[in-house]
């Protein structure tokens, strides 16, 4: 997927001619994702399956505190991203584990909001959204486990670039955070074979928003100070759906994976896996204009996506190293409706794979583990 947010076949200049809420004091209210589905935002992640890379191997043991650091480089036709994801965990009991992930990232690529504009190179980077996780082994054999993780909005999600007085908010793919909380529930199961291991997982992710203390949109005194505020978009303590304070909407999603780890060679574990993600609805994006509340369906939304993953662990018992390669495959984005940019219909369709993008986007990762105390 190209991350330049160009709506193919329909210039945003032409779309801007459609009557919508473009002025600060306009009485017209734009469509919003939860209005079209009865007020509860039951939708899916618009971003796809991710890279699907996770550690498969012998791992490390012997310490009270375990550290795992993944460094990933994701590249496409007109973008690249570099992330470092340190994860620290402890085991309060033999069958439970709690941990925290503190991500850092750097994004580079082209941004093009309108087809008659020249693409502009942009760069962002810094701290992302921090996640806390908990897992518990279940069953007599310990082959299955249940997990839960909570991501909190610590990363900036309104990064702007441009000249003074004319800055534009960058697309979500360039932001360091989502502006949302996100709860993920997971189930994992493993089955040993003669020379390997099969691993299966299922997960459900549900984004939501809350301001339990202030009860107000984060930008009420800046971006929205001249807008006539009404409804739970600007004043709320809790929203059970994933609309952030800019108006971008990330609905829930389901995902899963199947992987096989081959342990037939001493000191090495090779793994092959497929990771998939299915959005339960359509993601929406916010306006790039500061001060304009104009959410609309994401023209780059993917109705389904998967990733093919190969991993290789060098199983040193004290300091294992993991190398991985991920190739994404997803459906061809439906683009925006040329007559109504607020219509979700083109994005809801399940299309054939985007053959032109296969092989044009990939992720490589290097991970290390260690235990302490």
UniProtKB/TrEMBL annotation:
Highest taxon in the source lineage: Bacteria
UniProt keyword annotations, A-Z: Signal
Signal sequence coordinates: 1-16
Name of the protein in its database record: Transporter
Organism: Fibrobacter succinogenes (strain ATCC 19169 / S85)
């Amino acid at each position: 997927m190209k991350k330049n947010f160009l709506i193919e076949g329909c210039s945003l200049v032409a779309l801007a001619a459609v009557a919508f809420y473009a002025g600060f004091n306009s009485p017209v209210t734009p469509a919003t994702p939860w209005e079209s589905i009865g007020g509860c935002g039951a939708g899916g992640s618009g971003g796809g399956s991710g890279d699907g890379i996770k550690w498969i191997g012998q791992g490390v043991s012997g310490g009270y505190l375990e550290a795992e650091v993944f460094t990933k480089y994701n590249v496409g036709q007109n973008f690249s991203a570099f992330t470092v994801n340190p994860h620290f965990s402890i085991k309060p009991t033999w069958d439970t584990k709690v941990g925290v992930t503190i991500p850092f990232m750097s994004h580079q690529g082209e941004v093009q909001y309108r087809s008659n504009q020249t693409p502009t190179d942009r760069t962002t980077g810094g701290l992302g959204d921090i996640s806390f996780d908990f897992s518990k082994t279940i069953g007599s054999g310990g082959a299955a486990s249940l997990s839960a993780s909570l991501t909190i909005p610590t990363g900036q999600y309104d990064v702007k670039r441009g000249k003074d007085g004319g800055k534009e908010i960058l697309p979500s793919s360039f932001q360091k955070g989502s502006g949302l909380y996100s709860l993920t529930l997971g189930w994992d199961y493993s089955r040993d074979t003669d020379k390997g291991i099969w691993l299966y997982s299922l997960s459900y992710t549900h984004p939501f928003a809350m301001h339990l203390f202030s009860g107000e949109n984060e930008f009420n005194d800046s971006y929205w100070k001249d807008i006539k505020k009404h409804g739970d978009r600007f004043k709320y303590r809790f929203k059970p759906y994933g609309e952030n304070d800019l108006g971008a909407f990330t609905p829930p999603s389901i995902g899963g994976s199947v992987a096989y780890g081959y342990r037939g060679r001493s000191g090495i574990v090779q793994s092959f896996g497929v990771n998939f993600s299915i959005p339960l609805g359509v993601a929406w994006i916010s306006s790039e204009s500061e001060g304009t509340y104009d959410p609309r369906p994401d023209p780059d939304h993917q109705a389904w996506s998967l990733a093919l993953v190969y991993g290789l662990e060098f199983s040193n018992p004290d300091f294992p190293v993991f190398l991985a390669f991920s190739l994404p495959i997803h459906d061809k984005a439906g683009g925006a409706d040329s007559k109504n940019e607020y219509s979700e219909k083109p994005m809801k369709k399940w299309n054939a794979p985007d053959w032109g993008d296969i092989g044009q986007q990939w992720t490589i990762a290097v991970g290390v583990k260690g235990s302490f105390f």
